[in-house]
Write a structure and sequence with these properties.
The structure holds two protein chains of two kinds. Chain A is mainly alpha-helical. Helix content of chain A is 44%, strand content 6%. Classes of the chains: A mainly alpha, B mainly beta.
Chain lengths: 529, 1075
């Protein structure tokens, strides 16, 4: 008997020794899809590109750098209690500044997601997917990549162009590329998108009009690049006119009748919105994966969960000076002035009366105001636009002005005045560079655009751009018994002595950690093409 | 009948004798065993039995009571009494074995009916069995580099987890505490750091169960904390490849084998161990009090031109303010109870152990409780079958609500003007509306209100069956598992701390289960040829699999702060998530051959083939091999005359081990579902895939010399090793423009895991133990260990010399790994004083803007001014930029020492143990943040020495720098100006400090109550003792504690305000009952 037991043991043991089945070592993830078995249908491609419109893909840049670089650095806004933001305001930016880190990191995060999506579609998309669908998906990803590189080029100038992040595994240390090649790359991406995106798509998705509008803006920027003599490249201006004009005249799109409504969640993705970030909401949305604009709120009383009013931005006196008394719609939609009343903020609590001068745009009230019970202050449901039709109108007008001192071109005036009359102010009869800068500054205040406008100007008219920022009244507004005055010296928000800016102020320095990681970034930039 | 049995017995005896001689008679074997069995069953005596008696003494001729006497090949056992005397049924020709803990087991043939047996203490350790992986050998037959430590030695430092106790006790092992919180983690590196992917942990094997390597467990808790140190019999640390190779792919960083106590044949012994302890914060950091704080802010307001605070107008009338360190730290109790019963007979031995351990943390809100039950059973079922099990059930309860790693940081984040509680009894908090003042929550309030409780239930154990086919060949089948169930319950109530308000309460709850199983089958063969050549061989197969599942849920808006059940929250705010999966899966075939020739030459060869699911198909399998040779010089004729040498052995070993320890599925891109407003779930690419990832290889050469001299009174062991690792597995820290991250960074992909570069670890370990004095009443023993390690990065792959695995803090790179230097080294500028005289601006280079132009000298924003820090222009190009950074030292200790002295005088014992670490640097992060006068946290008192800028001619120019100077030019603290163009907090040697230390780990005094007193109350032994752990530390480091362990070798030595190791006073008692 004992013998038999032992034989059984031996047989059992040998069976086990004879090894596990081959599939024992196959352990695919059970919680995540792998790229190897995705991209089978058009619906899969839509899920892949949906990721590029919001979430953590855009979250870091949007939270850390969008308004600080666009509006604080340009002198529109101020918040005294954040050292890194004060550095932007006083233009004493250090290489360790967290805003720059966040902007650089966030934009390259977006580019990384675009790149891997583009490469996966090109290499792995199932052959059964119709070519138009495939190219439309590529068009979406290339449009968004183009936008991200556009911000990079405007802020840092020469930056490394990366199309395939996995190549960095073998060659992690690369040079910056010359800025003209970065723009060329952007224009190519946007041109592809313009050709392959449909004229209409589901709400929130970009269309060929988004791409053509953006392309117009990029050509307008490129027209000035390297033209420090004060005139811009006419051929590129003509390209800007072509694409922006096509959107103005042939898209069938119109401005939203109310400027004020543009920034209310009820009007998310309105027809004027050419590219808006598609933020999700709810408690499951992680930090920096949602729209964090409500952290700029002036009061917890009007915020979801009555929380998060951490860093209310204040408008500068310099910004305030641009508004005429007639321009009250845009003023009130952009920033609050002491005792302004906003009935729609905390409507259930009787509305909100401002107790100082604070940014209003993007402050959309609490859960009830937006009929969004799960909205949190770290995940606002506002789909803020990075490109609006009004922007394309003003790009068109500026391109038409081109190298002339003034213009009375009917087309230019028509679209320029469309923007003005929608805001309830008088049309103009002539346009010059100053009026365009001013109009853009008012129209897009707190939309992260003004610094880019100044950079665009600095390309071809550096003297004007440098003077512009050195002559600003970078102080906050004080309500002195009902009269708004510049905050005097000695008070928080008052004037600070600053070393005057030079043209180098228009190019941000590279983040300190990035230079330490890749010392080749310090070398002169190299051509990409 | 009797005749027949006798006859059978004779036949069987004959057969057995034949088999031993020739080995090649397997067909006889069953019969042989069967007959033996029959004899046992019938119990028929072969020889006449009489009663013999005797005494057992130790080598000092003192009686050994409780020693087990066993008549070989029978079931007859007895134990000696208090006088060491015994009597048992046995006759001449029988063999008896005498065994007792701490003594070498002795086999004695019965020669008379009144025997005197003297036992040798096992101090020389040579006879001790050492676990070598799938087997055991006597220490004297070892070929590999293995250090052992007994459970008794381990417990001397009163560790709450066993790994804390290894520091300084085991040569070649660098031990650093990661967090002093109860049950906190420990980083252990054996023979250096060979992996850069964040885990250099050795493999932990407990009674054959592999404990999954401890990764970063978040808030500093320790995955090994379920193991009760009281239950440990011994720990063997396998250091070189010849020792570890048999464990294969998981063992590249060495193996720590823990054997728990097992039952011993004999009457039951009941032991009870208990101690009570009292822990205190060893040191407080010097911070400003309220008058100092107020004067600093007043002075700052003058310079800034704003932010004068009326409440600070008269600092001299203010009270001392709140000392947040005093408020957040307490004297905390701890206690341990352990009850064990062990015993058995010839067939079955058992050990049952129950324990309870409870430790409050010295920081408010931290507590650790462990309840555990262990059952170890061994049963010799039949003569050819042995079965057994080791089982442990543990329940851990941890409160970790505010005890993140940076608890000191928390204590320093609030200023002394804020009360813990207001006069009306409400919680204090920041009320200053000046926005400079960050609304930091009151940490004392948070600990009182928030709850974060972790519960962990762990079952781990194994069952085995061992079949003895015949004397030389056996098969062992083992199934082991580690079943780990953890829940974490977090509740965050609504509260108001001044300006800080939480208006929405919330809760989150998560449940995790991790299950690790291994099935292992292997044959052992052992035979002695011609009484001279011993062959032992092992061959087998094993399969290992880890599976994990977790779900978590959260809700907000609870009706009350007292109703904390997750389902009480508002359902519309519910969020949940979960993951599950399996892997890594590992499959292995292994074999080992040991040859012993004439008890002089020992040869070991290991071969193992491993497959891992962590790699893409085609890259999964790898071979591990090693060989070793040992030469017992003392058995050579030429040393026979040297009587002072008891043992001398030379060891040489070489091997290749492999490592696959990376997260699963990194060879392909994984897509995570995330929400967008567009289409609901969208697919976010969560990692940058590297399809080429494969095994990391380590070549390991080791030479060792073991010796024992002077009648076993001195023994030493020396090992010299050279390890070279190629194809380092690494989560590659790429530049930010790669869109990847190695840490936490929303929106970035997980960095690719790559095989990159190579690294070398060279060093030696030395241990010497000596019995200095050994008299009747007094003994003095000394142990000294020394570990020396030199770590060097040899190459870093495609980035070449420029690749440097940077580690950032506040946007600046403080740590780099550079070819030719140790990994994770500190880099930065050389601090050169502050700008204090006009001359300084002429002789010192200035930092530059983005265009490379030096910043102007100006008191205005954007200028460099008096009180800014100066840095050395190391490359001499006339400006300060990133090219002026240099190597500032390594966080890795060059040497670690352990120095232990034990004194015994009559019934007293006294132990004093020092451990030391030499040559490592520490990044003192708090020194950066708490010394900047423009910051708005609390400050170290050193900040009061801020650079004071004065004018030479008060009526002179206010812009010309020649008219200014600094009145305290030798300060290191910057001035009060509200501008940081100079980047005064850039990495510099100002913040990198020498982390060398000597720590008195233990002072312990014990007293053994005399047996005479005890025998009346039927107590066998009773020892009472008092211990002070972490008694004192000698160091130049200005922070709390220079011992900064890290899970991440690239950020070793980064002190962000760690939970410090407390000073602990304990009193305890060990009682053992016999009969």
């Amino acid at each position: 008997m004992k013998n038999i037991y032992r034989i059984i043991w031996i047989i059992l043991a040998t069976a086990v020794l004879g090894a596990c089945s081959k599939s024992f070592l196959d352990r695919p993830s059970e919680s995540q899809i792998s790229a190897d078995n995705f991209y089978k249908t058009t619906a899969d491609l839509r899920l892949a590109t949906a990721n590029l419109y919001g979430g953590a893909t855009w979250g870091v840049w949007h939270h850390a750098a969008f308004l600080p670089l666009g509006d604080i650095l340009s002198g529109n806004a101020y918040f005294p209690w954040n050292g890194d933001w004060v550095q932007l305001y006083t233009r004493t930016i250090t290489a360790g500044n967290s805003v720059m880190q966040g902007g650089w990191t966030g934009l390259y995060n977006t580019i990384g997601q675009c790149n891997t999506t583009i490469n996966a579609i090109e290499q792995k998309a199932d052959a059964s997917i119709p070519v138009t669908d495939r190219n439309a998906a590529l068009g979406e990803a290339k449009f968004i990549r183009g936008v991200a590189y556009y911000y990079l080029a405007m802020l840092w100038g020469a930056v490394p162009i990366i199309e395939d992040n996995s190549k960095l595994i073998q060659q992690p240390l690369i040079n910056r590329n010359i800025v003209s090649d970065v723009y060329k790359f952007i224009a190519k991406d946007l041109a592809f998108a313009a050709q392959n995106l449909p004229a209409t798509d589901a709400t929130g998705r970009v269309t060929t009009w988004s791409a053509q509008g953006m392309l117009g803006k990029v050509y307008l920027t490129m027209a000035g690049l390297g033209q420090s003599g004060g005139t811009r490249n006419q051929a590129l201006l003509d390209s800007a006119i072509k694409y922006a004009g096509n959107v103005c005249k042939n898209s069938g799109l119109n401005l939203l009748p109310s400027y004020y409504n543009l920034f209310r969640s009820q009007y998310n993705d309105n027809p004027e919105s050419l590219f808006a970030l598609q933020w999700a909401t709810g408690p499951a949305v992680a930090w920096q994966a949602g729209n964090l604009m409500l952290t700029y709120s002036p009061s917890n009383d009007i915020n979801p969960q009555q929380n998060g009013a951490w860093t209310p931005l204040q408008p500068t006196y310099d910004l305030y000076l641009n508004y005429t008394p007639d321009d009250s719609v845009r003023r009130k939609a952009s920033f609050m002035i002491n005792k302004d009343f906003y009935p729609e903020l905390n409507a259930a609590g009787g509305g909100f009366t401002a107790n100082g001068q604070y940014m209003k745009k993007h402050i959309i009230g609490n859960e009830k105001d937006n009929n969004a019970p799960t909205m949190t202050f770290t995940a606002s449901i506002q789909h803020d636009a990075l490109l609006r039709l009004a922007d394309v109108y003003l790009v068109y007008a500026e391109a038409k002005l081109g190298n002339q001192a003034t213009t009375t071109d009917a087309d230019a005036l028509y679209y320029f005045n469309q923007v003005r009359t929608r805001a309830g102010i008088n049309p103009v009869t002539t346009i010059n560079m100053d009026s365009i800068i001013k109009e853009r500054r008012i129209e897009f205040a707190f939309e992260g655009q003004f610094w880019l406008d100044l950079v665009r100007l600095s390309y071809w008219n550096p003297v004007k751009a440098v003077n512009f920022i050195n002559n600003q009244q970078r102080v906050t507004i004080t309500d002195s018994s009902g009269v708004l005055i510049p905050t005097p010296a000695g008070q928080t928000g008052g004037p600070t002595p600053i070393v005057p800016a030079t043209i180098s102020a228009f190019t941000l320095q590279l983040p300190a950690s990035e230079v330490a990681t890749d010392p080749k970034l310090l070398d002169p930039p190299v051509p990409y093409y | 009948m009797t005749n027949r049995v006798l006859h059978l017995n004779q036949i069987s005896k004959k057969l057995c004798m034949e088999k031993f001689k020739t080995i090649s008679l397997p067909s006889w074997l069953p019969g042989c065993i069967l007959f033996l069995l029959l004899i046992l069953l019938t119990g028929t005596p072969v020889f006449a039995q009489t009663k013999i008696s005797g005494t057992v003494t130790n080598n000092q001729n003192k009686p050994v009571s409780g020693a087990t006497i066993h008549v070989v090949k029978t079931t007859r056992y007895t134990t000696t009494n208090d006088a060491g005397a015994f009597s048992i049924e046995a006759g001449k020709g029988d063999v008896i074995t005498v065994s007792y803990v701490g003594y070498v087991q002795k086999e004695v043939p019965v020669t008379s009916d009144n025997m005197h047996i003297q036992l040798e203490a096992t101090d020389n350790q040579l006879e001790n069995l050492v676990v070598i992986g799938y087997g055991k050998v006597r220490r004297k037959d070892l070929t590999g580099s293995i250090s052992s430590i007994s459970g008794d030695e381990l417990r001397k430092t009163q560790p709450s987890t066993f790994d804390q106790a290894l520091q300084g006790k085991v040569a070649g092992v660098v031990v650093q505490q990661i967090s002093g919180q109860p049950g906190g983690g420990v980083s252990i590196q054996i023979h250096g750091v060979s992996s850069v992917n964040g885990n250099n942990s050795p493999l932990y094997v407990i009674d054959g169960v592999v404990i999954a390597p401890p990764g970063n467990p978040g808030a500093g808790s320790n995955p090994l904390n379920t193991i009760n140190p009281s239950e440990i019999e011994s720990i063997d640390v396998l250091k070189d490849a010849s020792a570890t190779a048999i464990y294969g792919s998981q063992a590249t960083n060495g193996v720590i084998v823990i054997s728990t106590k097992r039952g011993k044949s004999g009457p039951p012994t009941i032991t009870y161990d208990n101690y009570f302890g009292y822990q205190r914060l060893p040191k407080r950091l010097p911070v400003v009090d309220l008058p100092q704080f107020a004067s600093l802010l007043n002075a700052r307001a003058v310079v800034w031109g704003f932010d004068a605070r009326p409440e600070f107008a008269n600092p001299q009338y203010l009270g001392k303010g709140t000392d947040w360190q005093e408020e957040l730290f307490r004297s905390a109790p701890m206690q341990n109870h352990n009850l064990a019963i062990n015993g058995g007979d010839a067939r079955t031995q058992y050990l049952l152990s129950l324990s309870y351990f409870d430790q409050d943390g010295i920081a408010l809100g931290s507590n650790f409780k462990r309840y555990s039950v262990r059952l170890n059973l061994d049963n010799k079922t039949t003569n050819w079958l042995k079965i057994g099990t080791s089982l442990q059930l543990a329940h851990i309860k941890e409160a970790v609500s505010t005890t993140s790693n940076s608890v000191i940081n928390t204590a320093l984040s609030l200023t002394p003007d804020i009360p813990v509680k207001n006069l009306d009894g409400s919680w204090g908090g920041v009320t200053n509306t000046s926005g400079w003042v960050t609304p930091v929550p009151n940490p004392v309030g948070l600990t009182a209100l928030n709850s974060d409780n972790r519960k962990r239930n762990q079952l781990f154990g194994n069952v085995y069956a061992e079949i003895q086919f015949y004397k030389d060949l056996s098969l062992r089948n083992e199934v082991s598992g580690n079943f780990d169930f953890t829940t974490e319950d977090i509740f965050r109530p609504t509260y108001t701390f001044g300006k800080v308000q939480n208006t929405v309460n919330s809760s989150s709850y998560s449940s995790n289960q991790n299950i690790y199983t291994v099935v292992r089958n292997y044959f052992n063969y052992n035979h002695l040829f011609s009484n001279k050549y011993n062959v032992s061989a092992t061959a087998g197969h094993e399969a290992q699999l880890t599976t994990f599942e977790n779900v978590s849920a959260s809700r907000q808006n609870f009706p009350s702060n007292n109703v904390k059940s997750i389902s009480a929250g508002d359902a519309t705010t519910a969020a949940n998530s979960g993951v599950k999966g399996s892997g890594p899966a590992l499959e292995s075939y292994f074999g080992r051959l040991n040859l012993t020739l004439s008890d002089k030459y020992l040869l070991t060869g290991n071969l193992r083939r491993d497959g891992s699911s962590n790699f893409a198909e085609g890259r999964r399998w790898v071979t591990t091999y090693s060989g070793a040779f040992a030469w017992k010089l003392n058995n050579e004729r030429f040393l026979k005359g040297a009587a002072f040498i008891n043992e001398l052995k030379l060891r040489l070993g070489y091997g290749v081990t492999n490592n696959q320890n990376i997260p699963p599925n990194m060879y392909t891109t994984l897509l995570t579902s995330v929400q967008t407003a567009l289409s609901g779930a969208s697919q976010f690419q969560s990692n940058l895939a590297n399809p080429f990832i494969s095994w990391e290889k380590t070549n390991n050469a080791n030479a060792g010399l073991d010796g024992t001299f002077l009648n076993w009174r001195i023994n030493f062991s020396l090992d010299v090793y050279n390890r070279k690792t190629d194809g380092l597995l690494l989560a590659l820290p790429l530049p930010l423009f790669s869109g990847t991250t190695t840490g936490w960074s929303p929106g970035a992909m997980t960095a690719p895991i790559v095989n990159i570069g190579s690294m070398s670890n060279k060093g030696f370990d030395f241990r010497i133990g000596s019995t200095n004095i050994n008299t009747k009443n007094f003994t003095w023993k000394t142990d000294f260990t020394l570990s020396y390690i030199e770590n060097k990065v040899l190459s870093l792959g495609p980035g070449g010399a420029s690749a440097n695995l940077p580690q950032s803090l506040n946007g600046y790179v403080f740590g780099k790994t550079v070819v030719g230097q140790p990994m994770g080294a500190f880099y930065g500028y050389r601090f050169d004083g502050v700008f204090a005289t006009p001359e300084d601006f002429k002789t010192h280079a200035l930092p530059v803007d983005q265009s490379g132009n030096p910043y102007p000298v100006s008191p205005n924003g954007g200028g460099i001014w008096y009180g800014d820090r100066m840095y050395k222009d190391l490359n001499g190009d006339g400006v300060i930029d990133t090219r002026d950074q240099t190597y500032l030292g390594s966080p890795l200790p060059k040497y670690q020492f352990g120095f232990n002295n034990t004194f015994n005088y009559k019934n007293f014992d006294f132990n004093m143990f020092f451990s030391a670490s030499v040559g490592n640097k520490v990044l003192n992060q708090l020194k950066i943040s708490q010394n900047i006068p423009t910051n708005n946290t609390s400050y170290f008192s050193s900040v009061l020495d801020y650079a004071v800028v004065a004018m030479k001619d008060p009526n002179g120019s206010t812009t010309d720098f020649n008219n200014f100077y600094v009145t305290n030019p030798y300060t290191t603290i910057v001035g009060l100006r509200n501008d940081n163009t100079n980047e005064n907090s850039r990495p510099s040697d100002l913040f990198i400090e020498d982390g060398s230390f000597i720590r008195c780990k233990t002072i312990s005094l014990g007293y053994r109550v005399p047996e005479k007193l005890l025998s009346k109350i039927h107590v066998n032994t009773c020892r009472v003792y008092a211990t002070m752990s972490n008694a004192f530390i000698i160091t130049k480091y200005t922070g709390m504690d220079p011992e900064i362990g890290s899970w991440n070798p690239l950020q070793a030595g980064w002190d962000n305000g760690y939970y410090p190791q407390p000073r602990v006073f304990t009193v305890g008692v060990n009682i053992s009952l016999n009969k």
